[in-house]
Amino acid sequence: MTGRQWTILALLVTCSFICLVDRTNLSVAATDIQRDLRLSDSQLGLLLSGFFFTYASFQLLAISGWVADRFHVSWVLAAGLLVWSAATVLSGLAQGFVAIFGMRLLLGIGESVAYPAYARILASNYKEHHRGLANALIDASTKAGTSLGTLMGGLLILRYGWRPFFVLLGVAGLLWLIPWGLWAPRGAGMGAQRKTEGAVGVRAILRQRAAWSTALGQFCANYFWYFLITWLPGYLEKERHFPKDKMAVFGSLAFLIIGVVSVTSGWLADRWIRVGGSPTRVRKTFAGSGLALSTMILPVAVIRDESSAMALLFLACIAFGIYTPTIFAITQTLAGPLAAGKWTGLQNGFANLAGVAAPLLTGWIVQVTGGFHLAFVLAAMIALAGAGFLVLGVKRIEQVDFR
User: Fold this and answer.
1) Which of 14, 47, 276, 331 is the most exposed place for a label (fewest CB within 10 A)?
2) pTM of the predicted model as reported, rounded to 2 decimal places
């Protein structure tokens, strides 16, 4: 990659990091907010899922993908960050359930343009054998954001409370706009697309079996991921009785492991392709094995020994990290530059309905059964189904001929 490509990628990685810190801050503060606002477990599950109502629907309805394809994608991404950072600040000032729920909806609107914008930028500016590492670094930054957000949030909330933490994060995120304004990509392919330039419509994408298979595969993987980021901190505090600082350390380690393995996995996949491996074999191997092995999380909730349970949790996170850089690399290859924004938006929108399902179902299971065992079983089985959709549902990983 050229120096210019590395600079743009570094800014996308930083943006993704901010995105996930702002998205997951509610999970870290969940027990404190629940206590302050006197919420039941079901109400807390609704609050944790609120972000995904707008985040998923704006992509599923092709609004975010259309915006990313129709207007200058660099400024679309900047506008999205401005909206979600403002929502983060206002969440820290909210005085009741309705107000903070509204800010989570606004946060989802702002962040909904991120992945369609990333996809269009990467598909237009980076070659196939660079996309594995590029997607891995972006994905790793989401895990690092979750990890650092969990660690920093747990320690800062313990000392200062959750409201200052939210305000600080929102203000810090706005600083990203300065370097992005200086170095954002402005070349061919970044501006508005029109039908005369060959843009692909939503119907053409929905006719592809591969589009449905990648969407279902990502939905299953996302259920596993959102189960972790929304309820793992609460599980460690409620079920394992970890104090806030201990929860912060173990929770952040789990997410950090996924990020580190993701970068390694993306680099290895690119290297395999460079020496002659087909994208089909390479991407399916990493995606299928990673999700299948993530089922090692299943016994975590029933093993009494703390060390053994945490070891299995970390092994499951290693497996999930093997999967994570592949999903958007697959989509960018299948869609090509002209359809990357819309295809990614539709796929990511559907897949992030798991962000609504996982917190709500987990909250309901915990309230009804009084424990997390069935919630862990469900997350593991859904991850296994995701491996099947990606390995068996997608035939060849090559650019689709939409004609």
Assistant:
1) 276
2) 0.76
